[in-house]
Amino acid sequence: MKITFPHIGNTYIVAKAFLDDFGSEYTIPPFNTNKTLELGSKYTAESHCLPFKLFVGNLLQAHELGADTMLITGGCGPCKLGYFGEMLKKTVSEIGIEMEIITLEVPEQGLKELAARIKKVSGTSNYLNVAKVVNSAKNVAIQLDSLERLSRIKRARQLEPRSVDKIYGSFQREVLEVKGSKEILKFIRQTERKLKKLPQNEKARPLKVGIVGEIYTTIEPYANFQLERLLGNMGVEVTRQVTVSGWIIDDMLKKALRLPLEGEDVREARAYLSGMVGGHAHHTIGNTVVHAKDGFDGVIHLYPLGCMPEIVSQSILPAVEENYQIPVMTVIRDEMTGEAGFNTRVEAFVDLIRKRREEQLNGQNKMLYGY
Amino acid sequence: MDRIKCYMGIDVGSVSTNITLIDEEDKVIDKQYLRTEGQPIESLRKGLRDIDKRIGRNIAIAGVGTTGSGRQLAAAIVGADVVKNEITAHAVASQKTIPNVRTIIEIGGQDSKIILLKNHVVHDFAMNTVCAAGTGSFLDRQAARIGIAIEDFGAYALNSQNPVRIAGRCAVFAESDMIHKQQMGHSREDIIGGLCDALVRNYLANLAKGKRLESPVVFQGGVAANTGIVRAFEKALGVEIIIPEHFDVMGAYGVALLAGENARSGEGGTCFKGFDKLNASYTTQSRECSGCSNCCEIVQITMDHDPVACWGDKCGKWSGTA
């Protein structure tokens, strides 16, 4: 059995740690490129969402490398993401290739079924061992997210252009050669030290922008034209609350252990949207409110074309915009989106919030920006 | 005689390339509106050569700004001090002409935008995302199909008694609906009048999306020359639409203003390479980088065998080489 998994941001490092610790055989598909999307679009309906097309692209590219089993995490329905597992199975049989799909979530059949699935991957039925491995994978995810946060802060303040990208980029490539959660954690700490040592502009008071929206499009750099890097290199400090580690803790572990999982963002969102419509609609609305209260300069809302929960939040965001006077820009991505148009919008948005801040500093309204 | 110190703004768009020269008082002293015709470098050189021939001896360029979808390219060739996106450039130009402007409608060759201002600051903007219906290229095409000159398009629309209702959601549907209406026997005037209404409906639905369009409303971009569209906007919004004097070159005007601002605030000269560099031979070369799995499309521009610009890569491996 050769396992593989789809790409979403740095998740490949978490999955790698998880599978290394079990000693499973696996292959990581090539990073998402236009070719991945082309492959995926070929075998999916035009109206499928971008994440699904890329999942299928990853699946096909991994299949070429000899993979026969794909691990995915469960979605939080009622949107399409909750059915990715079933849809992938159907697509695989339509394409006519052999690929087993294993969804890591607590299924209808209960914990026993999950244990059976994990056993398939790990080859062990020692629960203590499984729990240990899951825990260290979770720690890798947490450390990765903190590394990401550090890189965003550093990028907005770097003195030498692209110096953060150089260190961070080589980390993402070289980590492929590092085996096991222990070694990976060590490598993350090493990179962290390197980033911290980079000279920075201590006087900088960068613009602060929050990224909200559909989880895949916000996390996967290919799906958002590397928005975080783009903004960071313009000297903007980016914050993204929806993270891989958050997903693992809230949507996989807490759900499995039936722990309460309502955060500040969801509470804030209730004023605008009382019921759950699926996906990350609550987080999108709630985080926009939280960012506005924290004095952020603006919020960028991202989602793939046709994403139902985010269409709902897009229609609610103007109310948040009005109530808190925070500029929100929505950008929708699909395989037809041109990168140049995307960059122009982002650049114009940064101009907009920069002018707004100057205006507020020169005028009566002396707001404090978070710090 | 002393040369007049002036700033140049260049807007390289999909359909037209515009060049504007302004003096120290921000007055437009020369403007050029040229068709890009798929050759941005050629049209840019043609425009600059023309300016040089006519007034080159009387002026001294103290700053250059570029905007439009070809802004990087133009900046590399001419040597620009400011490279700005279209939205900012248009807003700056509009505010210069009508200081208290609240809404800017801009319809160009291949895109349309709406810019809303509040307290003299851009407060919100939108660009057309999925559809080119209602932009200049579509109107051009329809005028050609009906067999009238685009310059007469507005006059026909104004003569319409009962504009027909045309599906304006999408350029393809609009066209087939127009053909249907024409085969039903409606007059050309009414079809053109209906088309103008449909395009305005499409614009308001796709870009304004229920936002409040406060007065004063300024309409700029090449399509503002079309009186039919202007009247349709006035009808739909119920307010007067202001068309600035230099509506067709507002992007270039805006970025010229920014270049002036930049020159006055900073020290040091301009990056402008001078008119005499225009006769150098430029070649562009594109290829796919095989350095990693991103497979970026790299474009390199060389002037007389010297690389002057290179872009398209995500990692910065090539952009730093020129």
Automatic annotation (TrEMBL), chain A:
Gene3D superfamilies: 3.40.50.11900. It comes from Ruminiclostridium hungatei (Clostridium hungatei). InterPro entries: Dehydratase_Activator_Redct. This is 2-hydroxyglutaryl-CoA dehydratase, D-component. It comes from the Bacteria.
From TrEMBL, chain B:
This is R-phenyllactate dehydratase activator. Pfam families: BcrAD_BadFG. Signal peptide: none annotated. Transmembrane segments: none annotated. The keyword Mitochondrion does not apply. It is an enzyme of class 3 (hydrolase). InterPro entries: ATPase_BadF, ATPase_NBD, CoA_E_activase_dom, Dehydratase_Activator_Redct. Residues 9-259 form the ATPase BadF/BadG/BcrA/BcrD type domain. The keyword Repeat does not apply. One of its GO terms (molecular function) is hydrolase activity. Keywords: Hydrolase, Iron, Iron-sulfur, Metal-binding. Its EC number is 3.-.-.-. Its cofactor is [4Fe-4S] cluster. It comes from the Bacteria.
